[in-house]
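Thread: Modeling a multi-component assembly for a lab meeting

Hi all, long-time lurker, first post. My supervisor asked me to bring a structural picture of a complex we are working on to next week's group meeting, and I have zero experience with this. I have the sequence lines for every component (940 residues in total). Could someone generate the structure of the whole assembly? Inputs are pasted exactly as I received them:
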Amino acid sequence: MSAPLPLYQRRKQLRVLSVVLFLVGLFSLTQFPQHAHRTYVSENALMPGSARVDYSSKDLEAAARTTHDFIQFQKTIKHLSGDLPSWSRSCAEWIVSRLQDLNCDLDPRIFSYNVSLAGRQETRYQVYAVLKAPKADGTESIALTTRWHWHHKEAANGVSGLGLLVSILGHLRTSRWMAKDIIVLISDTDQGVRSWLDKYHAPHTYASSDDDDVFPRAGSIQAAINFDLPATSTFDQITLSLEGYNGQLPNLDLTNTIVRVARVEGLNTDHKMSLIAHPAPYPFLSSPYLPDELTTPMMTTLFTFMINQAKGVPTGPHGAFNTYHIDAVTVGVSPGTSYNSVMIGRLAVGTLRSLNNLLERLHQSFYFYVLCSPTHYLSIGEYMIPFGLLVAPLLVEFLCLVFVFADTQVTRPRDIAEAHMLKREGKTVTQGEHSMRQLPALLSVVCGLLFLALGLALYVLPLFARRLLSGVGVLVMEATLFPVGYIPFGYEIEFFLIYVILGAIAVRLLGSATRALLGDLPIDPSSFKLGIMIPVAVFIPCMSLLNFSFCTMAAAIVAPVYSFLGPSYNHKQRLMQALALLIVSPPALLMAISYFGNTNVPALMDAILDQHLLYRSLAYPFLTLVYIPLHLAACRLISLSPYEHSPTKKDK
Amino acid sequence: HLRTIVLLLCALLFIIIPSYASPSSSSSSSTPSSSHAPSNSTRHTNNWAVLVCTSRFWFNYRHISNVLGFYRTVKKLGIPDSQIIVMLADDMACNPRNVYPGSIFNNENHKLDLYGEHVEVDYRGYEVNVENFIRLLTGRHDPSVTRSKRLLTDERSNILVYMTGHGGDEFLKFQDAEELSSHDLADAFAQMHSKKRYNEILFMVDTCQANTLYKQFYSPNIIAIGSSRLGENSYSHHSDSDLGLSVIDRFTYHTLEFFENKQRNINNVSLLQLFKTYNYDKLGSHAE
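Re: Modeling a multi-component assembly
Sure thing. I ran the full set together rather than chain by chain. Output:
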């Protein structure tokens, strides 16, 4: 009676099972809105909306006045618009004088910082002030930030972010409930917030800093709210943006507080509050080609949320606060006439009052969640299940390969006993079937890992030789002899060719290294595949804890294609595999992303690198460390013969 | 002969010593020789109150104001400060979040400032903990503890013990850090009984699932009432939009209202009348 097959040898059944799991996982992603829970405030101390807000139309008028005056001032300095640093400085000085008129104790400061835009370094200026709470001990504070723009569209009684914050400062002057100081930061770029925060938290002593005077601080910042308002007197919806660096999110209680305060103030939070900033960043999500179930407001919100999180780019300057574990959101509006802007002021003051009640930082609610609307969430315990299903093919295949490899490494007891017996009889020992595969298997894994070395080189090189590479890229893109732009998809084809050529060179080099290692031994395809799958099988599950959306999308591409590749004799199968690899090749993916993102591939690559350096987003490490080597190695893999006994090279 | 002398001496000793040992008991033994057992009301000579608020933090303002409301009522009805022990776990009047600094209100009409003048708080802040509370009840203090922090009751004292805060099934939470269990409380009262530290106790508790706290009492002469049953929450009465929180709980509100209305003929009021005023519609829970 033959023994039952070990699990890893039931490959076919396992593969079918994992495909089914994958499809179930994809389907369950679309079921998120139905299973989302209603949000609730976890922190009892917050009590959002229980205190009456006194911000009235009088304060709104002050805000409108400030906005109007600022716009008029900007018109007078139009001649400076060519020289951004001095323009920035004049605006900052105007704001400082305005704040000083408001309250002599405010002590507003100008903070200068360096920003690199379009390759140049520039000095810019921003204003910050600390409103000290008279009865509090000054150890904690809440930050309010906003941006001023080049120019605002003039709207009658319009209230911009600047006007709003100045009016809030005026309103809070006479309030007696403040237990935390209020920091107001008015900047002209998003990087300004980052530089200010770095300086605020930098632990150098006064003697070693290069300030002329002291940089006023206000203790530890408990939470921050950024306002992104055009100069408008009415609005239609309030938009909340949550995503920070690398898709990290603020505590859900901050969102819950804002939603509840808005509800108490009369906003219809079910329909007039949204997580999609205006203008909608991904119009293709509402395209008529998609089925109806996928274009409901909740699905669109969910997909927008996931794409934003996957990109890893913060959706507003509030992202900078996240690096210092300060919960922050951006509040914006979409244009319309449903509500008066006084509601934004009341929302801001009400949220401040609620955050004021906190005794410690927000810690009760979730940090890892997925939102289908400002009032519906799914926590990490729930959204990891579809992720697990999506990763199933990858992990099942990986485990099978591990078992196969382990099997080749184990010498069965029968072989050992036989070997001993033969030795005693003085006969030569012939190796058993298993041990004949031991060394090639081990070395094939190492050959697979050589591609990881390629990935490391790809990751590190652009960081050091950025200028050199972009120069080379420019040369290649622009100074080609052949007028590529005139051919439809000319640039895309050229990009593809570059990848193919460079890829072939890389694979050749690695092939020589493989030959050097293996010598006359044959490559063991399953161990080779094990070696190339190690980086991706480690990267995707581990990084999913950090940035769930990115890893879900990566798994959705990688798992179905790369799990079941392998060398085969069947030409048709080989062709199918080659076609699949073509579709998901890095150039094809980059082109697809740049098409949907309305950009071109070199700009996209530049952006990916920049974003990784600034925000630690995952696209760059995934592409260089994991994906390109995986793709090249997979091409090499499918060109192997299933049982290669002779060291013949095969071209891609 | 020697043996008989020793025996006689021992007999003498056994007769003389007891008569020296308990002169007071012999004199006091005469009084209870009347035909019926003395009723508790004739023994009762003084009243005490122990008012305990066990929770801190700004959002538990209403527990402080519950206790201060009881304090004011109890003082008005005649118990002097020297016989009231007030335990407040936090200070709301000077909290920077208080828009009326120095004042504590239990009604949104703000007519009555409970923290005005002549408020004596005996245990404050972190002194309000389970250990101090049990020591207070049982009288086991360090010799250095002052008189104002002691419950100097005797067997003729009627004591009102009022506790408020956050509670649950057979426990009361102190300061967000520890709990007083119903068993410990019952044992403390039992000690009080054996040490003859009370005549009667009226035990009132206003927390969630309050009725479970007195389930384990096994000493005589204790009447206990809680604001809600097992599994029920006790609700606050109303919130104050100036302060931004609830200022009083329902059970306490209706109790204090009862005493405000009964000031004139307070001598003829019985506990049963008080208990009859509680009903589910007003409280949202079963006070029993």
